[in-house]
Amino acid sequence: MSNISAPDWEVLRTKGADWDIFDGVFTSAAAGERKPNLGYYRHVLKVTGADPKRTIFVDDKLENLVTARSLGITTILYDTFENVERALRNLCSNPISRAKQFLINNAGRHLSYTSTGQVIRENFAQLLILESTRNPSLVEYITYDGAFNFFQGHGELTTHEFPSDLDTTSIGLTIAPNIDASTKSRVMDSMLQYRNADNVLQVYFDDRRPRLDPVVCVNILTLFYSNGRGHELDDTLDWVYSVLENRAYLEGTRYYEGAETFLFFMTRLLAASPSVRRQFGALFKERVAERIGTTGDALALAMRVHCSNEVGLDAAVDVERLLALQQIDGGWNDGWFYKYGSADIKIANRGLTTAIAIEALQRSAGKPVALSEGY
């Protein structure tokens, strides 16, 4: 569908292009109309019998797209070939199937990386991918007979001998399979020794690192409530409620980026404890509703849709934005998730972003979350 004169078209069609890929070529000369006139679009729709609602129009001029949109046609602005290819794939193929294939294609290689470009081998993201997919073949992590360490080996971009932390340990003990109740109980007993002067649990199994983070507290609470011991952490729970009530999480925390990470981990806590859900539920729903439609990268959008699903909110605007960010390979790009507390270095993991996006999109579509299907 081109604005071109009859003589120019006669010359162009002799050039070395693969014209056979087109079922039809429409010229303004033959139609007696030019883009962006409505008549030209109506002419093409009539001749082809195409349904505007199932038609995609690609053009490099915005005015031409506006007319197409006014007829109900989906449009793509041509800027680069790569962007157009990505947009067409996202419109014409199943996003869930493509995303699952991305995870399969990269099984065992869903490694985290920093904003400085360094790949790091850590346990935290691997465990969360496992939780979202229920497929251990996709990830590699270390199981411990006790406290978990964030790193799979020595510390990277930090002290060589890095202490185990209550955060990764809580995630590990709630997600990793085949950890017996006695081990969990023993580790939780040890955790209780690392409370500050306010009786709130800290981050590390190391009194020389007195760090505090509300997301870490949420994950610890999830572990304790999952094992019938939440009542031992009332002061920590009260502080987390204050963080939620006063929106103290909006700009992220010491170790976590953005508002959505706090809310995302809160859904795990609410799922683990009916009593916490009763206490926090109404306020939590309000806070999630406040985030719908705000800015965010792919991970923030996936987490936001996940949270909205959990409390029955319609986040269609964020679902649409998330779908548009899917890449050609089926995965989603950077979502800065956590960070080194003492340095401005952020950490991301495409596998994690993609796994959370799959679960969120399945739930938002009202489909059963058959997480093992297709892996």
Structure description:
This protein is mainly alpha-helical. It has 2 domains: 6-78, HAD superfamily/HAD-like (Rossmann fold, 3-Layer(aba) Sandwich); 94-364, Glycosyltransferase. It has 16 helices and 6 strands. The strands form 2 sheets. The chain has a 4-stranded antiparallel beta sheet with strand order 4-3-6-5. Helix 4 (62-70) links the parallel strand 1 and strand 2. Helix 14 (298-311) runs antiparallel to helix 15. It starts with 5 loop residues before the first helix and ends in an 11-residue tail after the last helix. GO terms for molecular function: phosphatase activity. InterPro entries: HAD-like_sf, HAD-SF_hydro_IA, HAD_sf.
Gyration radius, rounded: 26 Å
Shape: elongated
Output the number of helix runs. 16
Low-pLDDT residue spans:
368-374
Number of domains: 2
Strand count: 6
Q: What distance separates the N and C termini?
A: 41 Å
Please give the share of residues in helix: 40-55%
Task: Give the integer mean of the pLDDT values.
Answer: 94
Strand order of the largest sheet: 4-3-6-5
**Helix/strand/pairing class, anyone?**
mainly alpha
CATH class designation of the largest domain: Mainly Alpha
Main β sheet profile: 4 strands, antiparallel
**CATH topology name of the largest domain:** Glycosyltransferase
The helix/strand series, from N terminus to C terminus, equals HHHEHEHHEEHHHHHHHHHEEH
Q: Using the 3D structure, state the CATH architecture of the largest domain.
A: Alpha/alpha barrel
Range of strand content: under 5%
